[in-house]
């Protein structure tokens, strides 16, 4: 496997300095962002889908929104972040990226907000990458804003392998979150309103296509 990764790495193009800076900041300040393998696949899937409007739940520091905007020059993105410090950092990075006309970032709790800036639009893609134990609630609240044929993407479905552990082996502080994540996975995989796949890439990427 390491040989494959080395081989694939030989094809990676020189990275944008701002993207490298954001990745370094995330590492130093323990901000969770998608790993390179996961976001590269995610962006490839978005390129195939070619959505015009994307809604992201969980901006963090703006990394994925900026990566998406850079890869899809015709797409507009609405992204929501509740943590003030991360929101302000994301605003700074988005402004520096030059994509502020296509990325609208909103400081709000995604489970509580009824902002017209969010709900007055319909979306081609919904990306959920916030509190893992609340995925089902995010899904149910925002799925109605997704067009028929639209796609919902959910990251961190494996939670670094913790979902594979028996309940007794999971740290107590994480048990409720992991139970909720497992229940959400089973629910969405069996939801007749969606065609759903779970890909073992990065930390697990779920893809649900709305019928």
Automatic annotation (TrEMBL):
Keyword Transmembrane: no
Keywords, alphabetical: Magnesium, Metal-binding, Methyltransferase, S-adenosyl-L-methionine, Transferase, tRNA processing
Binding of Mg(2+), residues: 129, 155-156
SUPFAM superfamilies the record matches: S-adenosyl-L-methionine-dependent methyltransferases
Protein residues bound to S-adenosyl-L-methionine: 34, 64, 81, 109-110, 129
Record EC number: 2.1.1.-
Listed InterPro entries: Cation-dep_OMT, SAM-dependent_MTases_sf, SAM_O-MeTrfase, TrmR_methyltr
Domain of life: Bacteria
Reactions catalysed, as given in the entry: 5-hydroxyuridine(34) in tRNA + S-adenosyl-L-methionine = 5-methoxyuridine(34) in tRNA + S-adenosyl-L-homocysteine + H(+)
Subunit structure: Homodimer.
Protein's job: Catalyzes the methylation of 5-hydroxyuridine (ho5U) to form 5-methoxyuridine (mo5U) at position 34 in tRNAs.
Family: Belongs to the class I-like SAM-binding methyltransferase superfamily. Cation-dependent O-methyltransferase family.
Protein name: tRNA 5-hydroxyuridine methyltransferase
């Amino acid at each position: 496997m390491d040989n494959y990764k080395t081989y694939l790495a030989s094809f990676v193009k020189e990275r944008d300095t701002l993207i490298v800076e954001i990745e370094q900041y995330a590492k130093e300040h323990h901000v969770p962002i998608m790993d390179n393998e996961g976001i590269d696949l995610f962006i490839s899937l978005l390129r195939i889908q070619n959505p015009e409007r994307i809604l992201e739940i969980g901006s963090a520091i703006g990394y994925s929104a900026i990566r998406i905007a850079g890869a899809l020059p015709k797409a507009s993105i609405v992204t929501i972040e509740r943590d003030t410090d991360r929101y302000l950092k994301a605003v700074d990075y988005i402004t520096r990226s030059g994509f502020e006309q296509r990325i609208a970032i909103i400081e709000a709790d995604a489970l509580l907000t009824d902002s017209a800036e969010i709900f007055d639009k319909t979306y081609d893609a919904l990306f959920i990458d916030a509190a893992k134990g609340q995925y089902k609630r995010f899904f149910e609240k925002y799925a109605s804003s997704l067009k028929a044929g639209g796609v919902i993407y959910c990251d961190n479905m494996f939670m670094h392998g913790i979902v594979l552990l028996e309940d007794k082996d999971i740290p107590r502080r994480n048990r409720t979150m992991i139970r909720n994540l497992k229940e959400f996975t089973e629910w969405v995989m069996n939801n007749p309103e969606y065609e759903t796949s779970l890909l073992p890439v990065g930390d697990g990427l779920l893809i649900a296509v709305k019928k």
